[in-house]
Amino acid sequence: MADQTPSPETLTQVEYRPRAKNWLDPHVEFRRGTFCYSALPKSLKALDLPNPREWQPFHRDWKLPPDWKAIILEGMKDRLDRFRSFRLFMDICVRCGACADKCHFYLGSGDPKNMPVVRAELIRSVYRRYFTTAGRLFGEAVGARELTEDVLKEWFYYFYQCTECRRCSVFCPYGIDTAEVTMIGRELLNLVGCNINWVLEPVANCFRTGNHLGVQPHGFKDSIDFAVDELEEITGVRIEAPINKKGAEILFVVPSADYFASPHYYTLLGYLLLFHEIGLDYTFSAFASEGGNFGLFTSHEMIKRLNAKIYAEAKRLGVKWILGGECGHMWRVLHQYMDTMNGPADFLEVPVSPVTGTRFDNTASTRMVHICEFTADLVRHNRLRLDPTRNDKWRVTFHDSCNPARAMGLLEEPRYLIRATCRHFHEMPENTIREQTFCCGSGSGLGTDENLEMRLRGGFPRANAVRYVHERHGVNLLACICAIDKATLPPLLEYWVPGVEVAGIHELVGNALIVKGGRERTTDLRGDPFEREAPAAEEEPVHA
Amino acid sequence: MNALLSLVAVSILVALAWVGGSVASLRSVFGIVVPAAAVAIFVVGLAARVTRWALTPVPFRIPTTCGQQRTLPWIKASWIESPWTRAGVVVRMALEVLLFRSLFRNTQAAMTAEPIPAAGQDAHGAAPAARGLRRLVYGEEKWLWLAALAFHWSFLVVLLRHLRFVVEPPPAWVDAIAAVDGFFQVGVPVLYMTDVLLLAALGYLLLRRLVDARIRYLSLLQDYFALYLLIGLVGSGVLMRYFVRPDVVAIKELALGLVTFAPVVPATVSPFFFVHLTLVSVLLAYFPFSKLVHMAGVFLSPTRNLANTNRMRRHVNPWNYPVKVHTYEEWEDEFRDKIKAAGLPLEKA
Amino acid sequence: MRDRYVILAALVLFFVLVTAPVWYARAAGEKAGGPDVKLPTQEKACVMPVDYMRTSHMDLLISWRERVVRENIRTWTAPDGTVYTVSLSGTCLKCHTNKAEFCDRCHDYAGVTPYCWDCHVDPAAIARSRP
């Protein structure tokens, strides 16, 4: 934590009564800790994106191209004609305000422009001014605003202060999805080169090396090999983790953080151990070494550019189907975009579990299965020997990640796996889980350190709910299935609810999994000794 | 300011209508031309708007899932909140359109300094003491939903009741609706429940815009305008029914004249009715160009009207254009030495 | 998804519904114009001026009901000083002898179903129905 970070007591002094009379004044103060730095020109150049230059949001001159206004308006027109969602959402909002206090950034900051309705109004006001008669005639009187540099800066500030989590969309009587508006807003900003480094550097890396972290093939192999060694130390079992193996049955795609960051890493160990135990014929790809897709936070075109490699590698390696690891936004892309953008995947087969014979008809077209679906099926068919007492030291809660919850509906599988592998499971309050789950506050590429205050604010509603179960039930582990969660929730919880750690579902699976051969395990995947409770624990295993 | 300006605007409309109904030479303008034009604008405008939406593609299947997806047969999936069948989508949309299902989820967040209630029993007693931080709590908030539902349903009933003015003889089912609506037989003519509900709901919807600082902050001129217009419309109707008795027979003659394209403006139609008629005309003409088109738009919302069958059936994007990608070959060419050194297989050795 | 035809069909259906009264009027051969009300032939004046009676007769009738039923006052003095017996069947229907051609014509036209006749009878109709 940087020293200038305000205390939790200070950050919770949030006032929900707007001080301004309305939102028409576009002026934004780029206050330290509440915005992300601009993208470096080299990233833009690597991706052939327009207007690469040195600039920062807090500079007065953003060095926009001379015809920036025409570019944005032309871009808007183009997207109004291509996305019914965008056009409709510009037209039908009645400003009922039901979404207002559903946004974690609004709840954490009290900034009224973070109310989803107002965030959309920022762009809707320009739509009115240039695309509707009333707006042309009456201007600001009817909430229509000129597109000025200040408006553009305001867009930048607030569209990079939305994590595209879709929570507001759940409450909107018309299903207006701010994620959709933000995505278009960011596309427009990208047209004039206004993007953030924490998104575009990973995108540039991913385009070149295949993953966000820029890990090159030998580095990828080293990471996986290292994990194999580590697993041997923990379990005494030597496993294999094939890379770029042609003719494997399954291509396994994970977010790159799984093999490079902690606590993601323990989840990777969990996958590897599981695959070994069931004898899965699979392969990693050192090129499709990223399931995540920061293109989602850039533009629809960029989603497609980065996502293309997954089907391409599946085809090249000749696999039958694809399995995907634990990641949130990655699954938004895989579930809702991949098949449409880069399909049809007619060269693959409908996934069938080689262990249980279960046919995953729910993915009959896309032919990519979520690891939680896959493992839940194994557990259901009793194909795994699990010892939940090994996870006794954890009092677990489950954080639904935004995208699996609201863009996929993956709610039960992870819970099923937690119940199978842990004895103490406590749900957070119902307004804060499942489809109403709160974002970690750092999604959609905002998880950078210079943005820390805003991340802490945005993550407050999530942490607030964790604190509830922490204090009530002694919860000390938050399980989740999202790489961004795993990266950004530890510091968030350290700040708001010290004493709660973060883990992936397959870390818990890996802990509980009894593997054939090897020696008696005494430590979990983190290398910490198991702390089993007496079988007659005071507390019944909770099935909340 | 917005609230005031729109009140002035609606007041001007009322005054104009009154003048139109009082000055003999203007009566046919306000009694015939204005309503006829309004209906024409409504039809053409709404058709244009909806056609525009219909012709704009839905490039991606983006349902907001509010329940468990359909995966493995033993996992209970939510066929309405995360539908995978057409029936599921239809029911989801019906709940949305008829009962405002999403709005029903509404909660109200508030910061509180109250401590977290203790658990019944905690085996470990591990809960550390609260640090005195404020925390967020979420309360039920159903008033908006209730008012919205009361308004929309009452408005529909009132509209249907009005069929007695444009159909001769009035259909029996319209009489039946009116009989149910006036079930309590309070006063003469009997008080309609929907009239009370309409005014109460509109009053609530206006009041929350005026009183709640947050809603006031995001409310635009047109938000107040729509409310004042509706209040004026309903108010003038209620006044005529219960207080200033107009000549109902003459009004029906005027209305029937409009639907049979044989317009007449009987002399006994009072200016009050002209206010009512003009406000409804303004509402109709304003409808397609305002947020009121949510009536049509709600049916087209891609986050609600698409099934969560994303991985089951391929959704086709009509403008799916080719993009510049980084191919495996390019990747292998760039990292050939490193791939080789790492002992990974190569396509071209 | 090619849903545009569904949308446009729904739009057409909506407009058909909205304009249904027009089509119905065409089909049923409706004519503009008021109801054909039979006015009394002998009497020239009602208990109140005709404009008042046209729009507000129900107020008068309900006040008559209250006088009789609640206050037991069986007479009513009109503004011009004439004293009338308070009675729907006896006073009103004395002149307006044909309920069906007077009351009902207007009420049916305006789609009004007063509950007067829940209790009151139309003596003329009863007389007619006797063999």
Give a verbal description of the structure.
Chain A is built from 22 helices and seven strands. With 544 residues, chain A is mostly helical. Chain A folds into three domains: 9-18 and 25-195, no CATH class; 209-380, no CATH class; 388-512, Rossmann fold (3-Layer(aba) Sandwich), CATH 3.40.50. In chain A, the strands form two sheets. Chain A has a four-stranded parallel β-sheet. The longest helix of chain A is centred in the C-terminal third of the chain and has 22 residues, at 452-473. Chain B is mainly alpha-helical and 349 residues long. Chain B has a single domain (2-109, 136-300), classed as Transmembrane di-heme cytochromes, Chain C (Fumarate Reductase Cytochrome B subunit, Up-down Bundle), CATH 1.20.950.20. Chain B has helices spanning 2-22, 27-55, 86-99, 101-104, 143-161, 163-166, 172-181, 193-211, 213-218, 221-242, 248-259, 271-286, 294-297, 328-341, and strands spanning 107-112, 135-140. Chain B has a two-stranded antiparallel sheet with strand order 1-2. In chain B, helix 1 (2-22) packs across helix 2 (27-55), helix 1 (2-22) packs across helix 12 and helix 10 runs antiparallel to helix 12 (271-286). In chain C, strands 1-2 form a two-stranded antiparallel sheet. Chain C has helices at residues 4-18, 20-28, 50-71, 88-95, 103-110, 123-129; strands spanning 75-77, 83-85. The longest helix of chain C is centred in the middle third of the chain and has 22 residues, at 50-71. Chain C contains six helices and two strands. Chain C has 131 residues and is mostly helical. The mean pLDDT of chain C is 88. Helix content of chain C is 53%, strand content 5%. The chains are: A mainly alpha (544), B mainly alpha (349), C mainly alpha (131). Chains in contact: A-B, B-C.
Search tags:
heterotrimer; A: 544 residues; mainly alpha; Rossmann fold; 3 domains; 4-stranded parallel β-sheet; 3-stranded parallel β-sheet; 22 helices; 7 strands; 4% strand; globular; C: 131 residues; 2 domains; two-stranded antiparallel ribbon; 6 helices; 2 strands
